[in-house]
Each structure stands twice: as structure tokens, then as C-alpha cells.
Amino acid sequence: MVQVIYGKKGSGKTKRLIDLANEAVKEEQGDVLFIDDDNRYIFDLRHEIRFINAGDYGVRSAQMFGGFICGLLAQNFDTRVIFVDAFLKLVQDDIRGLGWLFDMLDKTCQEHNVRLVISCSGAEEDAPEFMQKYLI
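RE: above sequence
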């Protein structure tokens, strides 16, 4: 299942994502991952959470991001939740053209029993139509 936290810059998306990740590690019976574009929040997360700086792996497009997520799932069958901060900084693409990616991620996550929580910057009223079903 894919879930999206959508809001303007400075609206508390990252804090909410960090809080959700720290809670998930207490409740989940598998691994919790947190993906960001830098190491800025590494010390805000519980030590049990696997922190991944996607910038270290050259993730710069929607195609690369999709492959990156699939690679993480293929490598670790125990993954239960993946949190992604600064999604639009990673994919560097217009959110309106990424419906295919969200459909692919949702299908993949359902097949592998994984929850993917993504934060996106922007005005919630400007979120594309395809995004409405993923908003939390």
C-alpha cells in the first residue's frame, strides 16, 4: 500500500514521517526503512530503523526510484514499511506525470505486503488527481 503525506514546505511533513517511522519500528514484525536525499535526519530516527541516503546511490529519476525500491524489496523479504522523505527532490520530475510510478509502486507493495509512506512538497489542493487515493 502506498500512502502520501502531501503539504507545503514547512508544514511538518518530515516531522510526521519521522514520528510514524519511530512508531512503526515498535509495532511492525519486520524491517523499517527510511529513505532521504541526505543524512540530515539520521539521528532523529530510532537505531532499529535502516536509514538510506538515496543520494549516495545516484537516484535522480522516477525510473531509478522505482528500480531502487524494487531492489530493496528483492534484497530483503523482511521489509514491512518504507518511509521516503523529500520524494520530489529524489525523482526531480513533475508530480503530475508520475501516475504510472505510483501505480507500479502500489502494485509492488501489495504483492510484497509492504507499506510505502512518501512525503511530497506542494499545496495539497494542487495534488494531481491520481494522488487523491494515496493521501493520508
